[in-house]
Amino acid sequence: MARHTAQTRRGEIVRLATTSGLASVEELSEELGVTASTIRRDLAKLTAAGQLARTYGGVMSLAHHPEASLRQRLGEAHAAKRDIAHWAAAQIEPGEMVLLDAGSTMAALADAITKKPELTELTVVTAGISAMSTLADTIGIDVIALGGRLRPLSQAFVGPLAEVAVQRLSFDRAFMGADSVHAERGICEADLEQTRLKELMMSRAEHTYVLAHGTKLGQSPFHAWAVMPRRWTLVTDESADAAALQSFRDNDIEVVVAPRRD
Known about the structure:
seven-stranded parallel beta sheet; Arc Repressor Mutant, subunit A; 23% strand; Rossmann fold; single chain; 262 residues; 15 strands; three-stranded antiparallel beta sheet; 10 helices; alpha/beta
């Protein structure tokens, strides 16, 4: 294939991501005849410009598929989510009331909780169907399901009914998921109902943790944002970029890099 200028190459990347729906760095490198590092630089510029959204190991077009389903996300970044979930579960104390947001990382956290038999008399509140299902038969855990309107893509409940339920509760710890998280803007999601519910959840918690693997940091794939509480903790994995982590620290946000588990 003939060599592309940077501008035409990036246009071709957007075209390929739009027609295929999802493209990996390796696929784009082979198709365009350039190195993987060149593709990564191109993707960084296209993502910053809001033309593409980064995924674990690749890129997708916002125009083609603006929001990945829970089923798709369950297939991404297994090791990173496992490491983050293991650290998060270790923070929970017996007898606490904890909130689990919806999403694939919350599913991993629910699974990690089931592997800690010492967590007795624990109450878990969640809007996510996957977490409900995982915890339903676990001895010593009382599950409170937040009702409301079901979003099929995220397999989670949102809306006024879920919000009213949250307003009647308080939590020792809230563990939040995110489509992406930004040091200054907060949590980015696909729609305003999600961000409104997340803000209420965080406002009712003594401690708030945002669980997000490295590729979700500093991105802005959508236009709905949840405003963060005054104090919160970002929990990510060892793949996170050092500069991205520093941007959170510069904004007085506590950062935890969950150690990799063998």
